[in-house]
Amino acid sequence: MKSNFDFLQSEFPVLSTFGCLAEKYCFSDPNSCLMKLGMIGESIVNLMFTYDRIQLPYDNTAVTRIDNLQREGLLTRDLTDILHALRKARNKAVHENYESVSECKILLEMAYSLCEWFMQTYGDWNYQHHDFVMPKLEHKKVSVTQEEKAAEEKQVEELTKQAEQKASMADAISKSERQKRAGKMASQRPKSEAETRYIIDEQLRQVGWEADTENLRYSKGTRPAKGHNMAIAEWPTNSTLGQSGRVDYALFVDTKLIGVIEAKAIHKDIPSVIDYQGKEYPRNIRKEDSKYKIGEWGEYKVPFTFATNGRPYLKQLETKSGIWFLDLRNPVNNPTALHGWMSPMGMIELLEKNPQEGNSALKALPYDFLTDPNGLNLREYQLNAIKAAEQSVIEGKKNILLAMATGTGKTRTVLGMIYRFLKTNRFKRILFLVDRTSLGEQAADVFKEVKLEDLMTLDEIYNIKGFEEKNIDKETRIQVATVQSMVKRILYNDGEIMPAVTDYDLVIIDEAHRGYILDKEMGDTEILYRDQRDYQSKYRSVIEYFDAVKIALTATPALQTTEIFGQPVFKYTYREAVIEGYLVDHDAPHHLETKLSTGGIHYKSGDTVMIYDPVTGEITNSELLVDELDFDVEQFNRQVITENFNKTVLSEIARDIDPENPEEQGKTLIYAVDDQHADMIVSILRDIYSKYGVSNEAIMKITGSVGGGNPKKVQEAIKCFKNENYPSIAVTVDLLTTGIDVPEITTLVFMRRVKSRILFEQMLGRATRLCPKIHKTHFEIYDPVGVYDSLNDVNTMKPVVVNPTTSFTQLLDGLSEINDDKQTEQQITQIIAKLQRKKRNMSPKMMDYFISMTDGKDPSQLIMEIEKSDVQEAKKLLFKYRDVFKMMQETKANGSRPVVVSDAEDELTEHSRGYGNAEKPEDYLNAFSRYIQSNQNKIAALNIICTRPKDLTRKDLKDLRLTLDREGFTTQQLNTAIYELTNEEIMADIISLIRRYAIGSTLISHEARIHRAVEKLRKKHNFSKQEQSWISRIEKYLLGESIMNVKVFDEDSRYASYGGFNKINKVFQNNLESIVLELNEYLYDDGGNVA
To answer: Which pLDDT does position 564 carry in this prediction?
Structure first.
């Protein structure tokens, strides 16, 4: 008997056999049919791993294997859906003795389509599609004996072995070529209406609907029922559209008709379906079905309508993909594309939602409880961030970005925002999305600790679900989750429950810059992603999946961040935070130069060098060098391991750090290149400090490999660094670069060069937090590799190539598709820029290959020839030498490249501070003096400080400090320069420093100036006990601030919470204003001698 699966016989006989057997059993033994179909899917998956030489996953289950192939870019979402459908059907058949002829018929056709794709991708590339023919019903039952079954199994076992052997011996195809082929064939694969309906049924079931097109049909007597949420197929209406006027699905929550779905063929434009059938059916609900209506909205008797063709949402094919939705309750609403289905609960909540009421409640709700010193105690800028976010919500914005410097209290800001949104019912359920478990735990701790209203914390007021609790319910108001967990649940979901797009109506994203750090190493926790670009794609997919308002927070907005969320609606920068006293500044960085870092490491022709292989861990001697080999400091610890350089600089740095005294000196964080480099640093430091009896526990590596990569051990190490005395020195790679709060960090050591501005600023951000308990005033930077200077002048770091991870093959493929000369020129520029980078790292062997394949041209000569040619000639030239670009791409070593090991001796040559353009502290102070003198009459605030300082306002001072900061003059660095010049530690404030270099006042510390003025005030007055208490509070305030005037009593929460100026004025018998004026006189009463 002829089988649909005969076409597989020549290339994949095992698949042909399974297919023939499945057809044979379809009507007579549907249970066996489902088992054979499941084996088709399993065999295809296993063969793909063998053909493409992909390592089997550690958790080697059918689900994980399918998901890994999807992550590798070899399976599209619809193919993944088919494989999971076959797998689940087989499991039901095996474990529940399940059988269904109707399901067999649908899955047979889906399995056939899958096999055609597999043939076109892994077998005969010339194979052409043939229509599937459903097997005929055999009226006589096919009986199979046990002996025949055993023979079948033996045959299948043998064929499976042969198939695996053939796959293992097949010529390897490049990953990119296979991905391209797999994607192309998947896009051309015909999809039947039955397949579309089957997949839609499964998707609806996953978000809480009872759906089964074959069995839950109107014609089979299915009707709405209390306690059931049903998608009933082929529901009749009075519509005259089509043959029957039946809508594909009618959605019922209990007995309420809440929506309709129209399913169409894969090639159909969906918005046009919404405009016709999508509106036609809700207009024409039959009279006898009026009992199911929940209301009428003009001519519509159903509130919501959907249309889909079963294709997953793609931005590039927006009108031909996704699930299109229209809320019919308001005629101004437009259809929108959703990334998934709404749940029954979500649709009911959507019906009940009233954004206008929520907006009005937000406007009416006072902010008092957010500034309560006994509660959240938010600062002014945090309130402004919340107000900006709320205003954007009220204006109807869906994507909102807040930019707040690291350490300025984003989590507390989020807490205040969440509470206001929930209290006013503006949002029903909020997802707080973080990219690391540790960040989520940090946030959860704040939610549990900070009192809001009636001495209750957020988790006491509202139901919060943590990381372990995946499923939400009606009472859930907040869910904390990681991006990784949502990627698994949304993009790789195979379970019974999937998040619905309506689960959350607000998503708050912390550290929204993540995923856009070009030179960050991919960690073990990111194995869900093929590469950094894949992370970006999946990150964005998760964020855009929910039909919700998105509010993102970041310290360092990147271009890609603003592409998703738009420009920030609120900004609070690191410099502003330092100037206002909410973060500490860093001092002038320590530059350490050694003989090797300034002179480099050189090997002569004929030398032998030691080579370390990071993959095997072996160290071997190279052959004699044909050419010279040179390394500069930028390549140290990456391309050349030089233990002596590390020993030299760490010995010098260790002189300034006391690891046994973190209570006073704070803690140190060292950035290494990779895990092996981190081990080396720890070993060197332990050796240095062992001479002084320092415990090994004081110095610890904290990377993703801690405890064998066990996440719990990693978290324990982070908590120890944060909460315990030891370790006081932590060495990390990327784990501690983002979002981990350890206020005690006072020293950063860069043993690694980075090129990304975003990553560098995140690294600096680890040390910016205030820490009063150790009297932290600033933090130190030690920079033996020159990273600070390399990035110091860069405000926005843009790579030369738009996407550095794009391969030559991808660029050339793109070039072949472009016809426009301007776009062609841009693409050629990209290729040249990539070649310029590539040529710097070419080995002699690769250079020889290059020259032999380009008619004797080296890379520079080829670049010159391309640049001299016109656009079309350059294009032809690039295609002519396509093979050389392919060679350069594929010559890249598998895994990490070998690293040279150097034992060259080293010694420290200089340890200096970096004062911008000034070489010495006296140069820096002279430059400051010149600036003050020349700008005293140009900058109003400078003039006020020099002539009438008591009139200075907080805004004047903030603006002045920002101006000075832009010129490179900070309070911390000015004081350090004075100390280095005079060996006298004073710590004066910026007002005293300006007056010293403008009018020659003698310099005293900020603290001494405040104490002197307050003491003078106390001696002049006979204050009561109550007045004395307020004078002490004012003194304490001035120690942290530089400005005191009567406005402060109403503007600052420390005074406003006690009743502000009016209340405190009564304590001073209505003399408070004159007292403040007198105090200001004493603050600057120097007679030309004391500032």
So the answer is: 82
Calculate the dihedral angle through the C-alpha atoms of 770, 775, 778, 779, rounding to the nearest 10 degrees.
-90
Rounded to 10 deg, the angle between the 940-947 and 954-966 helix axes is 120
CATH architecture of 370-579: 3-Layer(aba) Sandwich (3.40)
Peptide bond into 557 cis (omega under 30): no
Q: Which of 991, 996, 964, 1075 is nearest to 1030 (CA)?
A: 1075
Letter for the amino acid at 483?
V
Model pLDDT for residues 68-83, shown as the tens digit of each residue: 898 888 998 889 999 9
Classified as helix, coil or strand, 457 is strand
Q: Is residue 369 classed as helix, strand or coil in its secondary structure?
A: helix
Architecture field, domain 590-601+633-791:
3-Layer(aba) Sandwich (3.40)
Q: Which CATH number fits domain 193-352: 3.40.309.10, 3.10.350.10, 3.90.1570.30, 3.40.47.10?
A: 3.90.1570.30
Quote the CA–CA distance of 690 and 692 in Å, as a whole number.
5
Q: Show the tokens assigned to 962.
A: 């920002």
Categorise residue 1023: left if φ over 0, alpha if ψ from -120 to 50, beta otherwise. Answer: beta
pLDDT at 123 over 90: yes
List 434's β-bridge partners, or say none: 482
Handedness of CA 328, 329, 332, 335 (dihedral sign): negative
The total of other beta-carbon atoms located within 10 Å of residue 639's CB is 17
Mean model confidence pLDDT for the chain: 82
Alpha-helical runs (H) found in 756-804: 757-765, 787-791
Find, among 581, 627, 636, the residue nearest to 604 by Cα: 627
Three-state secondary structure call for residue 432: strand
Residues of the chain with CATH 3.90.1570.30: 193-352
CA nearest neighbour of 783 among 574, 977, 594, 1031: 594
Helix (H, G, I), strand (E, B) or coil at 572: strand
Residues of each domain in the chain carrying CATH 3.40.50.300? 370-579, 590-601+633-791
Instruction: Please tell me whether the overall predicted TM-score, pTM, comes out greater than 0.85 for this model.
Output: no
d(CA 1006, CA 736): 34
946-953: Cβ within 8 A, 24+ apart: 946/994, 946/995, 946/998, 946/999, 949/991, 949/995, 949/1080, 949/1083, 949/1084, 950/1077, 950/1080, 950/1081, 950/1083, 950/1084, 952/991, 952/1043, 953/1043, 953/1045, 953/1047
Q: Across 390-509, where does the E strand assignment appear?
A: 399-404, 430-434, 463-465, 476-482, 506-509
For residue 481, which of 459, 508, 463 has the smallest C-alpha distance?
508
Condensed to tens digits (0 to 9), the pLDDT of residues 950-966 reads 778 878 888 888 788 77
Instruction: At 245, give phi and psi (nearest 5°).
Output: 70, 20
1079 in Cβ contact with 1044 (< 8 Å): yes
H helix runs in 138-229, sequence order: 146-169, 175-188, 193-206
Q: 801 exposed, middle or buried (CB, 10 Å; 0-12, 13-18, 19+)?
A: middle
**Is the distance from CB of 748 to CB of 781 less than 8 angstroms?**
yes
Q: Are 597 and 908 in contact (CB under 8 A)?
A: no
pLDDT of residue 525: 36
What proportion of the chain, given as a percentage, has pLDDT over 70?
A: 84
Which one, of 118, 22, 42, 21, lies nearest residue 87 by Cα? Answer: 42
Return the number of other C-beta atoms located less than 10 Å from residue 368's C-beta.
11
Beta bridge partners of 550: 399, 507
Angle between helices 146-169 and 30-51 in degrees, nearest 10? 20
CB 429 within 8 A of CB 507: no
